[in-house]
Amino acid sequence: MEILNSLNDKQREAASHDKGPILVIAGAGTGKTRVLTHRTAYLIESGKAMPWEVLAITFTNKAASEMKERIGRLIDYSIDRMWIGTFHSVCVRILRSFIDRIGYDKNFIIYDDDDQKIVIKDCIKELELDPKLYNYNSIKALISNEKNRRNTPDNYIKDNYLNYANRNKGEVYALYEKKLKAANALDFDDLILKTLELFEKNEDILKHYQERFKYILVDEYQDTNNAQYNLIRILGKKKNGESNVFVVGDEDQSIYGWRGADISNILNFENDFKGAKIVKLEKNYRSTDVILNAANGVIKNNYQRKGKNLYTEQKKGNLIRIIETDNERDEAFTTAALIRKEHRENNINYSEIAILYRTNAQSRALEEGLIREGIPYKIVGGVKFYDRKEIKDIMAYLRLILNQKDDVSFERIINVPRRKLGQKSTDTISNYAEANGVSKFEACFDFDKMGLIPSAAKSIESFVSMMEMLMIKKDAMPLSEFIISVIEDTGLKDMLLQDETVEGRSRVENIHEFLSAAKDFEERYEENTLEDFLVHISLLADIDKTDSIKDVVTLMTVHSAK
What we know:
Distance between the termini: 33 Å
Low-confidence stretches: 541-547
CATH architecture of the largest domain: 3-Layer(aba) Sandwich
Mean pLDDT: 89
Radius of gyration: 26 Å
Strand order of the largest sheet: 3-2-6-7-1-8
Largest sheet: 6 strands, parallel
């Protein structure tokens, strides 16, 4: 078939696979993305599946976008109805349609890391635990790990009943889950877990999606965790024995064990999907022979892998240099001096140079070395756009307007801008809400009944009036115009304009960028409600920013580079 003509023999063998499960072991630089896109295009162009009958799952939104773009250039069909996305985005689409079958409203919201932090800290406070002993990061990790193991709070508490500290952590986990349910909210782990729950409790819904998706493709299979593996297994294994699951991965590139990735998912694929075909892509198009020989020599010492040997038809290339130094300071200064020498004597652009390190903490010495040599640089992985305070404040307003049960968003913005509400007043609101079984925002409607001091009651009355007006405007205005109204009516605009520092101006610029994002979303997508926009933002993995100086050395962790 003409669509496969540009592939090499092994790539073509994988892409043209007919029926049944298949594992493609794709070494680094062997063209796995090319195989995935051509496989998808082949299924559609050959008439084996319509675009909406193919489910393709990637690990990043960027990869999903690139895949859509490439497939669009290969086929004559519209890709608008294709399901190509991350595990999280695919699960959101399913849950938006059927989550009411497991006790949630369809307008559920998605809590990010900052939202989780607020909820967990509230739980620690309510349970009167010492935050120094029960810190947020460790409990968040515990909750995530237990969720991915599908271990409920009750079971965790039961298993750790004799361990006082762990039992308390289990109580935080239990209260955390209760608060999320009350707010009609899910965290990112829940997106997959609730989809699994939906399928397990509703066979008709599972059957619907099994029949819809004739072919399932999964990228970076070595990075799947237990929950993701179970989702692929339950969707891919149909009752009639048919299993058209196509996974691509490389156990040699598995570096996410620390966040739950289970390498056994790829190593045991043949046991999980009987009769699976294995295709190995070993021809490398990216690296020189010297680099591949070194990589092959190192990785062969790992015995938990499916054997393969990468090769290339490129030139041998420059030798690898190893330089020993006495300490990290010498290492950094030596590195910077070598970069300066390459730039001056060999006209190597700074933008062609990257420094990789294991942990973020290791960048400090390297930065000092570069600064000493006057070398411009950028660090990949600073504070992401949608994590910036002013952006999260706007989003909290928008989320509360959409979902009045969202206590996390309420707590974030009830005093932003300042409304002269002290801790005593906010505690009064919280206590009243808990006593009456309502959300904190809903409690504010009873501002004259909960015992607030007159000035606080007046402030809350104004807040409620403003929010009610914005709720009315939400359905009467285009998205971007509505967000402008929110920024102005809430006082956020005036608050930011009062700060005339460089940081203040930067925050104003970020607000303008946020409005541009809303306008762009409005123009690009037919479904462009406020709810759609917030889901879109929640699923963004990162926002790439470029410095005004483009010729800079790039610093990043190995994980960021991956």
